[in-house]
Structure prediction request, 950 residues.
Amino acid sequence: MRFGVLGPIQILDGDRITAPGPAKHRAILAALLMRAGQVVTLDRLTAVVWGEDPPVSAEPVLRVYVSALRRLVGAETIRTVPGGYLIAITPDQVDAHRFDRMVERARRARDAGRTAEAADELRAALALWRGPALADVDSGELRRTQAVRLEELRLGATEERIDLDLALGRHGEVVGELRALVAAYPLRERAWGQLILALYQAGRRSEALAAYQDARRVLVEELGLEPGPELRAAHDKVLAGQVRERGAVPQETPPDIADFTGREEVLGWIVRQAPAAGGAPVHLVLHGPAGSGKSAVAVHAATLLGAEFPDGRLYAALRAGNRPAGAGAVLEDLLRSLGCPEGAVPTGLDDRVRLYRSMVASRRLLVVLDDAVGESQVRPLLPTGPGCLTLVTSRSPLYGLEASRAFELGVLDTAGSVAMLARVAGEPRVRAEPQAARRIAELCGGLPLALRIAGSRLARRPGWTLEHLAVRLGDERGRLDELTAGDLAVRSSLGLGYRGLAEEEQRLLRRLGALSGPDVAPWAAAAAFGGLRVDRALEELAGAGLLQARGLDDAGQERYGWHDLTRLYAAERLVEEEGTAARVLAVVAREVLERVRRARVLLLPAEPGTGRTLARTAEQSLAMETTHLRESARWLGAERGFLVAAVADFHRAGLAEAAWRLAFYLTPFFELRAHHEDWHATNRIGLEAARLAGHRHGEALLLRALADLYRIEGRLDDAARALQAALSHFRDLADRSEEARARYRLGLVLLAQGRSAEAERCLAECLAEFESAGDARGRADALRGLGSLRRAEDLLTVSLDAYRDLGDPRGEAAALRELALVHLERRRVPAARDCAERGLRIDRRLGDRLPEASGLLLLARVAHADGVPEAARATAEEALAIFKEYGDRRGIARASLVLAAAHLDLDEIDGAFAGIAAAVTEFDALGDRRGLAEAEELAREARRRRGLWL
Prediction:
């Protein structure tokens, strides 16, 4: 059921439209609809129906009116609540609220530069109106508080839509509408200004000037006021067009590209920044990497805005070949374009600047300054006339250019890339091979220059398939060779920037070519550069558009990224000028391994071999450990993409030990943050590297880590096989400590498989081995495993104390969760809550989101056991949100089941079935028979409850 208030009151039920009959019924329904889903007090309804003089019997009469409305809209729709009434519908069921939402959505599209989409959305919103708001409601209170507000919103949305239509060149379509608008609302200056501009853009200047005089007369006669700034600016624009010199107007910008594609965001930004007639001049910088299409965007924008600049468009190329053009030479060309006679151009730069500024002071120009090298080159060329617009393209953001605004032009997304490829190569060919088209777009990295070249090659070779070109581009070694068409070449475009660098910056760029990561922090760049500081060189490379500064990461480090084709070019330069990349990677590997090893030590306090097995009290270590653990996880999170790529880089360079060690060092972080895909990828490469190098110890460590991953994913048989292989290696190597740690994990797998007796025997043997070897961390883990298996409070308490002595808050939090479960099973709810809350506080201090979600889920179960279903539902929902954020399917399943139980306790049967269905989906995908059985048991109870409820 839907309701209409934007016009006469309507009730829409399918195809049937009805309306409440008596006037007071309409007033009450309108008041409830304007606050859909909220309580409307009796006092409010009384004021709506009778104003300030209600009868003594107002309250019982209201009940009669409401009863009549219930027969019309359904008894359950209007609810009696303490203090008043509530209409139980969503705001979206009322056209006025939908109108508000659509207007807000249109404004977001407008702010994002999607002008046409914003105009269409506003048009659809305005189409909801069927007449004046609350047209048949006789209530002074509602007219004053609602109808006037809605009408003002309607007018504002209409004017906003007309602004967008004018920006889209639809001036001819809105003139009639604007004439009707100013006739109905003659005091709205904005509408008059829009009418004047629409007439002017349609070439009807005399009518535009007459409209201004009409508007001025009305304002003076009715209000005694002269027109405001907006209306005067529209008038000035028309006057400027009339008095403009009739001589030749320069139109120097290059021809627009016929197959220009996308870039709505930056074009919208340019249109919004463009100055009004008489306003201060605006200087915009479009910056980005080589080949990103900066010049094409500037020319396209100049073509779109050309009519707004009656004194012409100037163009200057600021780079001549490999060298920047001098400002003096460029000024000479610009002065001639502006009509400076032969022989009248001054010889000195300062004199040329003064003459240029004098000649542009009274003109409204659009100036494109293409491929600027630096601020000093651009400053003398900026026009100073009111309403002038300068579009500067540069690989640098030109931070030092005063009073300018900048927009970084990135690469196209996949959809935009495919669209551009289709425009150049031909729509039918791209439609015929959509997957190959997407592959080409990916291999071109969304770079417009590369896409144009790829499309041109296809257009000139009708016998080629897109798949054929995709295969050719797929070979990194020849990709830059393939991206050449005539005088267009990605390599030469990148080479132009490279040759303009100082020798030190060239060397840094080359060496970064050894790394395939998506971005790099200064410490890694310094390692590639031989340990020298590189901050200034990185900034220069970013300024040259060869790197992109991506801001600070979560660890507070500046990060620099680059386009993949730039990386390939840098790798080419490295091989050609310095030889193989292996030497650079060997230096980088030493620094990477040391840093990641230290981070792993902090993630796993007191692990054998870390040198941190001395016992300390929790009071001595808690603050320091918490800080270090958070910093370690934060740093690894920031470096994750780089480090994952480094594993493959080291392996390709023949640095097998570095590859497998880095893969192994990263496993606890991947486990903590549930980065399972990265874990699989690096483990596979690490295993291959260890096997190729014949390093059985490394192979065994990675097999053990792989088993951890399989166990988390529920692949218990695979986990057992990986552990058996690892155990075999450790036995052959006579490494009893690592063998015990592998056996401990086997015990956890056996327990998960339901083989409790074997698991207990395995864990008990591990405990004895750890105690014999003096492995305090192993002992704590084994005690926790046995305590969990036996549901033994004493063993878990000893484990908890051991973790505290080791200064291992993560282990402490895990032991507290296990203790909470034991207390919960024994109906000791306060003790369970205490342990769960203590563990949760530790997880939150550490910033460990997945363990935090486990702790929240445990607290939800405690609340369920304590008979507080509202708290159980809220806490389970919080846990579920975290599990979904990390894609933890087992956590999602468990949280969904606990949430379903909470819904059931609250008699929210539909919510319970929804949670059960979600849990079953996940348990089924995981092959978790125990979870499926629990879900089925809860479903039976839900079905029983539904039968009782019905």
The chain is about 65% helix and 5% strand. Residues 455 and 713 are 43 Å apart (CA to CA). Residues 618-652 form the longest helix (35 residues).
